[in-house]
Specification:
The chain has about 450 residues and is α/β, with parallel strands linked by helices. It is about 60% helix and about 5% strand. It contains 17 helices and six strands. α1 packs antiparallel against α2 (about 30-50), α6 packs antiparallel against α7 and α8 (about 210-235) packs antiparallel against α9 (about 235-260). The longest helix is centred in the first third of the chain and has 30 residues, at about 85-115.
Length: about 450
């Protein structure tokens, strides 16, 4: 059996492990197994790459692997679950940046030798460079927004015209690179600069409400870029991994956009900037409840539905939520969790946090599974959620989220909303739920507020 045949068989095994791993990650129950399978696949791919004939610079490769592995292990152990969206954005960006760097090195090598790459390779290298550079710079902006470094969205005058102009310029420069066979350092530099600027300009006006869709979209971009550059390097593992990530990221982006009832193009060209206000004035006032009031309502309820949001994540209150749930269950209360597809700042954010706290998967329901049950619930406990429970999405045609499917928390007999203050939240949209006749506000950090509720529940018989 030749070395090439062994390598091909190994890459086929890698592809199978990637696909099985991704399939297992579709459920929280099997996600850990899926990550293990995908990790084994990547380890095999790396070992096989070392065995590929013609490989050089082994010392540099090993040093890069060790350095990257140390940083990744440190981040994996120290990054908080609330900061996971930022880390996902960084990893997206690194993948896209690496794909663009691969093409840049290929171009530079051809330029230095005075030769040209095959046309098919050149086209895919250009496409991978463009998508990868946009993903890299866009992910950097997404990280800055999620980390709080960039406090607000910035929409440029004639934003969409500038987006279109930069995109056209990148395409024209890419065509010139292909036509010229990669020769012409000035064109190459201009191409990469325009692509990087395009990623920044597209992402800076996008506000918090659209962030889950943006993260998913950038993930798809990175996958596509890696797949293109895999062809450039003739590396089956990169091609397979890129196609799988690109396809799954694209499907997830479509699901996220559908969950918000927004077209993907609208997310880019008509983003919710974080400064939007609902079109109709909201009548009424917010009515505050004490921790004892909340404890009594929930302790003597028959059915309670918990709706977690990013406020819970910020406070790190998922463990308190589960402690309260167990107390209520011991008292005979039926407790379920309702998760909106875009709750938090990345897809699946709330599911991960609840799983970390030990909440059984069978207690967690998505929007379509549980929405009918809110009308029978005695209490809906909304913890740090905002847009995903905003009734304005049904009634206010002037609201930026009009038409977005929401969790019907307002249909419950009683609604308890825990939030830190009276502000409009991350997206900047006023929430009509907070002014409802059946709604009571429990102000304060979720960690401390729920601690008080738990202490009061324990005093009730």
């Amino acid at each position: 059996m030749t070395v090439q045949l062994v390598i091909r068989i190994a890459y086929a095994v890698v592809a199978l492990l990637f696909i099985l791993g991704l399939r297992a990650m579709s459920s929280p129950v099997t996600a850990r197994r899926g990550i293990l399978w995908a990790g084994i696949g990547m380890a095999v791919a790396i070992l096989v790459t070392f065995a590929t004939p013609g490989m050089k610079n082994f010392l540099l490769i090993i040093l890069a692997l060790v350095a990257g592995g140390i940083v990744a292990a440190w981040l994996g152990r120290t990054v908080k679950m609330t900061d996971m969206p930022q880390m996902v954005a960084v990893y997206n960006g690194m993948g896209g940046g690496a794909a663009a760097a691969i093409a840049a090195i290929k171009f530079a090598g051809a330029l230095s030798r005075g030769t040209s790459l095959p046309t098919a390779v050149m086209i895919l290298a250009v496409l991978g460079s463009l998508v990868g550079a946009v993903s890299f710079s866009g992910s950097c902006v997404a990280f800055a927004k999620l980390q709080g470094i960039m406090k607000r969205a910035h929409r440029l005058p004639a934003q969409n015209f500038i987006n279109a102009l930069l995109a056209l310029a990148a395409v024209v420069l890419g065509v010139l690179i292909v036509v010229q066979g990669g020769l012409g350092g000035g064109v190459l530099v201009a191409f990469f600069i325009v692509a990087l600027v395009l990623g920044i300009v597209i992402t800076i006006p996008i506000g918090g409400a659209d962030m889950p869709v943006v993260i998913s979209l950038l993930n798809a971009f990175t996958g596509l870029a890696v797949g293109f550059e895999g062809y450039v390097l003739r590396n089956p593992a990169l091609i397979i991994a890129g196609i799988v990530v690109g396809a799954s990221g694209t499907l997830l982006t479509q699901l996220m956009a559908k969950a918000m009832n927004r077209r993907i193009l609208n997310v880019i060209f008509k983003p919710i900037t974080g400064e939007a206000k609902a079109g109709e004035a909201i009548e009424g006032s917010m009515k505050e409840a004490s921790a004892m009031d909340v404890a009594s309502m929930m302790r003597y309820a028959e059915r309670v539905i918990v709706v977690p949001g990013y406020g819970m994540a910020v406070a790190g209150a998922q463990h308190k939520v589960w402690e309260l749930t167990r107390l209520l269950q011991d008292a005979g209360v039926n407790v379920k969790f309702a998760i909106h597809p875009v709750a938090g700042r990345m897809p699946g954010h709330m599911n991960v946090l609840l799983a970390e706290a030990g909440v059984p998967y069978e207690l967690i329901y998505d929007l379509e599974e549980i929405n009918q049950e809110f009308s029978q619930a005695d209490v809906a406990l909304v913890i740090g959620a905002n847009d995903v429970v905003n009734p304005s999405a049904r009634t206010d045609k002037g609201s930026p989220i009009y038409g977005m499917p929401i969790l019907n928390a307002d249909h419950s007999h009683n609604v308890i909303v825990n939030k830190r203050g009276k502000g409009t939240g991350y997206s900047g949209i006023e929430n009509a739920l907070f002014y409802g006749d059946n709604t009571r506000m429990l102000y304060g950090s979720a960690q401390s507020a729920l601690s008080e509720v738990i202490a009061n529940v324990k005093t009730l018989v």
